């Protein structure tokens, strides 16, 4: 069985400062990894994903995440945050095995940007 | 605009009521999902339909009954709910049931059981 740990439930950051949201997972098999974002009063939206290839993946709005197999981590980073980044961020993992590919989500990290 | 709509957005119901949540996707997808989102808990997958066939029932109590009449519509029928069922219920769709495909979420229905 898989599990996802997001240790930080809330992260306050000053505008234009860097941020890292931590995600660790456990799984006995190869995985796909995802970050979803939920803005207030909206559903979740995919931010970025790792399926294969380069371990560093980027989103269109400046976020990046690096898959670290040895540390079983997929931390999300942004070098300079903006007010519009205020949201809840969810890390998710799924098995690569066909037929057992449901997503397992973490508890989320609420990112608050301080002007 | 995500292409996945949910109605109603808010619902208050008593424990003896029967109500239904509706989800519609306009993306041409073949898989649809119901999730339950409660405060301070991970998103819980409830049901998965792939090409209109239910492929996942994540040990959900029978007071929740899903229905998928076609690939574009998904319902969640509710009856004799408990206060602990109060939560945000999210619908999602994807190209098919493979997790490598992005899931597109609706805005959710905020359910309060009194």
Give structural notes.
- The complex is a heterodimer of chains A (115) and B (114).
- By secondary structure, chain A is mostly beta strands.
- Chain A contains no helices and twelve strands.
- Chain A has strands at 3-5, 10-14, 19-21, 24-26, 31-38, 44-50, 56-58, 64-68, 73-78, 87-95, 104-105, 109-114.
- In chain A, strands 2, 5, 6, 10, 11 and 12 form a six-stranded mixed β-sheet that branches.
- In chain A, a hairpin with a 5-residue loop joins strand 7 and strand 8 (64-68).
- Chain A is globular.
- The mean pLDDT of chain A is 91.
- With 114 residues, chain B is mainly beta.
- Chain B is built from no helices and eleven strands.
- Chain B has strands spanning 4-7, 10-13, 18-25, 31-37, 44-50, 53-57, 64-70, 73-79, 87-94, 104-105, 109-113.
- In chain B, the strands form two sheets. In chain B, strands 2, 4, 5, 6, 9, 10 and 11 form a seven-stranded mixed β-sheet that branches. Chain B has a four-stranded antiparallel β-sheet with strand order 1-3-8-7, with no helix packed on it.
- In chain B, strand 5 and strand 6 form a beta hairpin.
- The mean pLDDT of chain B is 92.
- At the A-B interface, strand 6, strand 10 and strand 11 of A face loops of B.
